[in-house]
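To: structure subgroup
Subject: Chain for Friday's discussion

All,

I'm putting the inputs and outputs inline so they're searchable in the archive.
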Amino acid sequence: MRRGSNETQMGANGNSAVATVKAGPRFGRTTGRLAEHVRMPVYREGYALVLSAGVAAALGFVYWIVAAHTYSADVVGLNSAAISTMMLVSGIAQLNLISALLRSTWRLVGWSYAVSVVASTLVAVAFLAGVRTWAPSLAFLSSDDGFAFWFVAATMVWSIFNLQDALLTGLRRAIWVSVDNTLFGVAKIGLLVAFATVSPRFGIFASWTVGVVLSVLVINALLVSRLIPQHTRRGPIQSTEVPSARLIGRFVAADYVGGLSWIVAITLIPIIVTQRFGAAENAYYSLAWVMTIPLYLVSASTASSLVVALVNERWRFREYTHRVFVQTARLVFPAALLLAVAAPLLLRLFGPEYAHRGTTALRLMALSSIPAMVIALYMGVWRAEKRLSLLVWVRCILYTAVILLSVALLQPYGIRGPAFAWLVVQTIAAVVLFAVWPHVLLTNGSRIPRRLRGIRLVRNAAADTGLLTVSQAIKRRPALDRRRTRAAVAVSRILAELPEKGAGPPPSAWTTRELPASVTEKLVVLAGPAGAPPRAVVKLAGSERAARGLVRETKVLSLLSGDSRLEAWRSLLPEVLAAGEIDGEPFRVEGVVPGVEASRLMAGGSAPLACLARLAEGIEGLHRRTRSEIEVGPALLGAWVDAPLAVLELHARRRGGRERSQLRALDRLRDELHEALFGRRLMAGWTHGDYAPGNLLVDPATATVSGIVDWELGGTPNLQAIDLVQLVLATRALRRRREYGEIVMDALAGGWTEEERGVVARGAESLRDAPPLSVLVHLAWLRHTRNLLTKADGYADNWLWHNLNFEAPLAELA
């Protein structure tokens, strides 16, 4: 992104013969930053939608001024009620398919259009059949068959009109929404004047509905002939089939009630006003709302662009949400204050009576758009994260409260009552949302509970001062002594059976040199002649679980050693000197791999910057020689996602406490990973499974990998980029002395160094249709956590590990 800014600046400087010397660079920097800003999809699409809202507001302003001067207040109020009723019926019939189109784009188009048209017809006919019962003031809608047919047809077309805007946003062609609204706005103004003499009573409703028909015909012709085909060619589409009932229910049904509550709130109140006080009073209320709704649409537009952006770049959650909030506030806050101050002047353009009766209502409504901006952002985030149950409950409670308070205040305060209800209820809601979920709006915000943040703070302080290392050594000492006692007997028997190789004392005369601490339940002993470097590593199983791992590692080493493709790379593998059983338990003897543990080089952060890249080169030989193209289907998803998640779910149930929220977070992770991976064509092959500095031996002078050990988790076919992501995350944890869970959360929040990005990019280059970086990080965390839970019981029972490496990351997903 810096490159784009610099290129722009150079262009400005190149034109310095025309501009002044001082103005050129300044102009270049400004235009460069602006161009860089607008190039970000979340801004570009948001501004396009805001532009659409601005165009609609300007044309709507002109439209209602013309209507107010052409028709009486009674006619304006009556037609406004008819339009509100049409929107209400359409909103009920749309089944909230707008949200589905924002996420799934064109594969839902035909299905969504068909369902909306049929549902609109049925709901409109049902409404007209009982209109004299529940809304006698709207009985004119069914006064004759021609007008009733007109109302039903208009409702059908209005449903498609709303769906096409959502489709344009989902296709990332939001600029066409502005074209759509401009076409609609200009058409209805011209038709408004034309219908004034033809239909003096219903000319407003006629101009509105005929204008919608023209817009729908033009925009859908453009979608079918140009925009959808271009989108198909530009990128891979998951499926063109009609979605399953499960998918439909997921994107539509859960959110439908919440979406309907908003539609009912904005359309039912004008109907109630008409029923209580007459059409003229509704004209004053409706025009105040018409002037306020563009500010609501600005917030809704930027939230919609955020949904699309987060679906494609989930790992930029904090960055995008904070930026969208700031940019939306810069637009809405001053506009709301200006509208509140200028309310009487603007309403006077409609006529003196509108200014007299509607000024207070307009001021209250304008101010209500400020807390509505906060609420809209939360709604967008929850929709992108598929937290539909929370979205539904909040919206239902919020807009039900608005309706109830509006009805309660309507009689004593007139149209000022509903306006006050919008301001009070939304202000309370915005304050509550921010108090409960501050991380949505703050760049440094976190979903992690304060309890866990306190634990992490104490743990990190102990790590930085060395107390954590000391306490862990003291805690492990008894187990270490027991291992030494057992190993002293078993190793001597194994070495006695080991055949002699090379000069020097026979293995039976070797001595053990040290017993490195192990995070698993294996017994690991270095052995060799007295006074000479160790020659062998003896590994024994310390438990049934470790025995299974040792057997599997022996099998993996055998497969790799026998793979003819790996002849040049095989020197990095440990040589198996002997393998078998002693007292019914497996053991293996390996030759000592030359070099120093990479973790010793990296722990203090003193290794050269190129060290990480050189460590990555060690495994790339295996990746390159064994990769092949595969399509991710149910079997691979089961192995890569479902099987590890089953281990984590079992751990959550065993631990109890916060089981429900943790299982919900794991379900969300499963859904996100399935959606991100299914159907992709990737390059997969052999992986190490735990490619971390502790399992790498290096030349201390050059940091070149000289050996790779601990192959228990190796396998194929696997996503090979995970090895490199694991290397980056484990190295971060080592250098910073932090828990792996904290490192994972930092990685998901961004802040990758150029060195780290370069290493991961080398692995992603082989993926063809590479998934987002956040998916790779989640897969790495999932595999790492599963591995530790299955390697040793100590992790599952470790309170500190559970809180910081399991519960804290899941709190970010919950």
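Points worth raising on Friday:
The two ends are 32 Å apart (CA to CA).
Confidence is low (pLDDT under 50) at residues 1-30, 102-106, 235-245.

D.
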